[in-house]
Structure prediction request, 143 residues.
Amino acid sequence: MINRVVLLGRLARDPELRRTSTGTAVTTLSVAFDSSYSKENNKSNFVRVSVFNKTAEYICNYGKKGSQLVLEGRLQENKYQRQDGTNVSTIEIVADNIQLTGSAKSNTNTTSDSVSLTDSTMDDDASIDDVLGNDVADDDLPF
Prediction:
């Protein structure tokens, strides 16, 4: 079976970097995306996205509320039991590749760097400067 997600959306809040007890970088994002193809019936949805290692550090350093991004990852189900005994099941995306595709929404037409980082292709000695792209205007993006 294939478990792959590709999503274009915007950060719903500023990301915050945390560390596990073993020192692994982790952040949990809330990503907003539209669910309709027509502007009349447009509805925003929000999905939880977990990000680890260098990708988490990257998104916390360069992403902010409103930043547009494309992410790739997989769906993961989490199950737990509440204190009242109710069983809960949630679905989240575990991202392994995130690309910032534009700046946060603003009233001015600005350009920003298109930056991408993939945990599986980055070695521990690589810096974020190694993956910076050219300046790209939001209007130049194909989506």
Observations:
- The longest helix spans residues 53-62.
- Residues 36 and 118 are 29 Å apart (CA to CA).
